[in-house]
């Protein structure tokens, strides 16, 4: 087990954050290209640790090894490469044009500077991918990161942290603080400059409240209740395995897992029969792993019982599997709309399918959830899907696929409503991990600017002339003022 898997007490958090700040000062001064060079070393160490990380991920989460490879390890190979290239590019100073009539001989640049110390709190379901998609760009931007991983996967966290040390990242820039929720809370309340939180809605609310005390900015990636909409013209040979994967991958413990399916009537029988038959072929253990925690196992059982109590029919699965904390992949139909499987995040291998009359009704039902992370449309009508995607209330819409874009570093991953407002991946995430700093250099040399003291009557006359020119054109304002105002307008 990694030497980094050491629980720390709440009282130690402030000291760790101070150490991180010290380390960050020197790191932020380095050139972005130099930081990228260090990250290349980390990437190499990460690749060297592949087997160990995959083993620990499968062991601590209960997911099949294939999922540990495909969901936790492989996407990060791209992630490192993407950010090593993009971060220095995004941090190049950007020259901004200023109107030379209004602002003669002034030169403005914007630079993305690090926020300082970023607090990162992560869940257990993807214990490698989720932390790395913040750690890598945050460090490349020049920040230090204080990371509170989930207590459920401590060994994975230790191995990931080790790769940064082995790869040559200077000490103090990535600090892992192991512990439970109280340690997470202490990190949010410490002298950090930004908080990135991924987890459940209830914990997210606590995090926002704690961060507000110190006015610390917060990025929240919370739960989901993703809908898949299957329309009459869908290619069912693809939609059936696609929806099954979206619902049951990671045993459904996926923020973007399909937790509701809306299928139009004409194709509903064929789709439901096909989904049920396909689900029955999935192998427990190698396709669908165990649930990671006892708590999650209990939630899944309770949601299925609630659905059945409200008239829902179990079409396949519906009960615990043979192994510890295994639950058979489950398809439900005829479920009441107020059943928990439709309203609350289940986070397990359970999917209710509802028959709807039209595509519009499906979109309306999809938008009824209190969450809005991702959604998918299964249809041959691409133009229609693009129109419907615009009115789906969520951060990502996939057509004829589901949610795999979370593993694509160039595409933003974000949500609305109870799914939180944080962004990971892409330049938009980088904008959250940095702040724009403006630099203005004035080479004018004149004794005063028109807007400096004393104001006199000319300032007002100039203001009025500019408005006149904007409203009616230059001919209305004679003389010098008119000429000045017209040139100003021409340069707009
Ligand atoms: P939790 O919200 O229970 O925990 C998330 C993290 O927060 C854990 O590290 C936890 O510590 C910590 N924590 C607990 N209490 C506090 C507190 N008061 N202050 C600060 N940190 C605290 O989520 P789970 O770990 O159960 O993960 C599942 C949830 O994550 C689901 O809702 C899922 O949808 C969501 N998720 C969202 C994603 C997205 O991209 N939108 C991606 C993946 C998951 P500990 O558990 O160690 O006590």
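Sequence proposed for the structure above (492 residues):
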């Amino acid at each position: 087990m990694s030497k980094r898997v050491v629980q720390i007490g709440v009282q130690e958090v402030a000291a760790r954050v101070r150490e991180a700040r010290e380390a960050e000062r020197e790191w932020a001064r380095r050139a972005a290209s130099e930081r990228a060079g260090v990250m290349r070393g980390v990437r190499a160490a990460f690749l060297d640790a592949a087997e160990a990380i995959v083993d620990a991920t499968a062991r601590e989460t209960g997911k099949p090894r294939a999922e540990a490879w495909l969901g936790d390890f492989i996407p990060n190979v791209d992630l490192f490469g993407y950010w090593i290239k993009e971060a220095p590019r995004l941090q190049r100073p950007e020259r901004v044009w200023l109107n030379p009539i209004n602002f003669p001989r002034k030169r403005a640049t914007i630079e993305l500077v690090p926020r300082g110390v970023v607090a990162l709190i992560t869940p257990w379901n993807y214990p490698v991918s989720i932390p790395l998609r913040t750690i890598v760009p945050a460090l490349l931007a020049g920040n230090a990161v204080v990371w509170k991983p989930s207590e459920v996967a401590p060994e994975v966290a230790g191995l990931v942290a080790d790769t940064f040390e082995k790869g040559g990242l200077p000490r103090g820039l990535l600090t892992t603080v192991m512990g439970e929720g109280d340690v997470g809370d202490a990190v949010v309340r410490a002298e950090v400059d930004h908080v990135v939180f991924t987890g459940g809605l209830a914990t997210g609310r606590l995090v926002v409240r704690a961060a507000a005390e110190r006015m610390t900015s917060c990025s929240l990636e919370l739960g989901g209740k993703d809908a898949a909409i299957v329309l009459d013209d869908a290619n069912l040979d693809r939609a059936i395995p696609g929806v099954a994967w979206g619902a049951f991958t990671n045993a459904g413990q996926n923020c973007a897992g399909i937790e509701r399916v809306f299928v139009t009537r004409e194709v509903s029988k064929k789709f439901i029969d096909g989904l049920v038959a396909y689900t029955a072929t999935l192998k427990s253990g190698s396709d669908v792993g165990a649930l990671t925690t006892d708590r999650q196992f209990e939630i899944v059982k309770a949601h299925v019982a609630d659905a059945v109590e409200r008239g829902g029919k179990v079409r396949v699965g519906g009960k615990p599997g043979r192994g510890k904390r295994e639950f058979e992949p489950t398809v439900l139909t005829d479920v009441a709309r107020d059943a928990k499987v439709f309203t609350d995040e289940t986070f397990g291998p359970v999917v209710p399918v509802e028959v709807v009359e039209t595509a519009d009704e499906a979109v309306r039902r999809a938008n009824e959830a209190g969450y809005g992370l991702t959604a998918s449309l299964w249809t041959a009508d691409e133009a229609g899907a693009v129109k419907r995607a615009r009115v789906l209330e969520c951060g990502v819409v996939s057509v004829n696929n589901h949610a795999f874009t979370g593993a694509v570093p160039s595409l933003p991953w974000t949500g609305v409503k109870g799914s939180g407002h944080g962004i990971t991946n892409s330049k938009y995430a980088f904008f959250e991990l940095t702040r724009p700093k403006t630099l203005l250099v004035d080479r004018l040399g004149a004794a005063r600017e028109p807007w400096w003291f004393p104001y006199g009557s000319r300032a007002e006359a100039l203001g009025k002339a500019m408005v006149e020119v904007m409203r009616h054109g230059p001919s209305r304002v004679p003389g010098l003022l008119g000429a000045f105002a017209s040139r100003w307008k021409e340069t707009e």
